[in-house]
Write a structure and sequence with these properties.
The chain has 284 residues and is α+β, with helices and mostly antiparallel strands. It has twelve helices and four strands, in the order H-H-H-H-H-H-H-H-H-E-H-E-H-E-E-H.
Length: 284
């Protein structure tokens, strides 16, 4: 069937005008009004063949905007689930829009956060169990008798105190520890043995990179003396190759406790310890 538009000479004569108006940025309605001619949609489409509509007449495509947003997020390293969280975005669409982009590598921080979130309930349950177990165990001890404290102190000193060696003769009571509970227990034991407070000297041993003034206040308050009563501090040399864990505000170094005129006491402690060893040995 012949195209009636192409065979009508009046319509052919209108095409140059229609094209000129279109390239000037006019819409279809504006072209009709400017020409003053009644044109059907089919006729106008024929006359505008090959001429794209002006940009201002195009309706924005919401899908195009979502697609660009999805691609932008993917380039930022977002996962499918994170992109889908954007309003109006379907996972199937995201898969089509960004499949040509490289898959983002999860950062170490993101992986750590995911792992922490996954294990958090188990850790909370474990932590509760640890607290309950320790509280139950502590309740099983109760108040120590003098004999129990005596034996505890002997074992504590032999584990943590200075000992006389054939290559290093030192018959004196010298105790070093960083645990406040251990320090308090040891001092209670010395009191049980009748050691006078004036025979006990204290000094702090700590790395020079720490807050030495705060450390001295910490230990002085713990043992109940003035900071001025502490002996000269011992500064440990720091090895830069060593990665130390005992750093920060909670690090107070160690407290050194020395009992003056304690050779006789040291010999008794060594004898008491050998007595414990013999008493604990099971007969064959």
């Amino acid at each position: 069937m012949p195209n009636t538009h192409r065979d009508h000479p009046d319509y052919k004569a209108l095409r140059p005008q229609v094209v000129t108006l279109r390239r000037a940025g006019l819409s279809r309605r504006q072209i009709r009004d400017r020409l003053g001619v009644s044109l059907t949609d089919a006729t106008l489409t024929y006359l505008l063949e090959g001429e794209p509509p002006p940009e201002w007449t195009k309706r924005p495509n919401a899908k195009d905007q979502l697609r660009e947003r999805a691609r932008e997020l993917r380039k930022q390293g977002r996962t499918y689930d994170e992109i889908v969280a954007e309003p109006g975005v379907a996972k199937s669409s995201v898969s089509l829009w960004v499949r040509d982009l490289p898959k983002p590598r999860k950062s170490l921080e993101a992986m750590h956060q995911m792992r922490e979130a996954r294990w958090a309930p188990y850790r909370e349950a474990r932590d509760r169990q640890i607290v309950e177990t320790k509280a139950e165990a502590a309740g099983q001890i109760g108040q120590l008798t003098e004999r129990e404290l005596f034996l505890t102190g002997v074992g504590l000193y032999w584990a943590e105190g200075a000992k006389d060696k054939p290559y290093a003769r030192r018959e004196c009571v010298l105790f070093v520890n960083s645990d406040p509970g251990v320090i308090q227990t040891f001092l209670t034991w010395l009191h049980l043995l009748g050691v006078e407070p004036e025979r006990i000297g204290y000094r702090v041993m700590i790395h020079g990179t720490a807050d030495t003034a705060a450390a001295e206040r910490h230990w002085a308050d713990l043992v109940g003396i003035d900071v001025a009563a502490l002996q000269k501090m011992t500064i440990k040399k720091h090895n830069p190759k060593t990665v130390r864990k005992n750093v920060g505000e909670g690090y107070h170094g160690c407290l050194v406790i020395r009992v003056l005129q304690s050779a006789e006491l040291y010999r008794r402690i060594e004898g008491w310890w050998y007595g414990i060893v013999l008493g604990a040995t099971r007969p064959d």
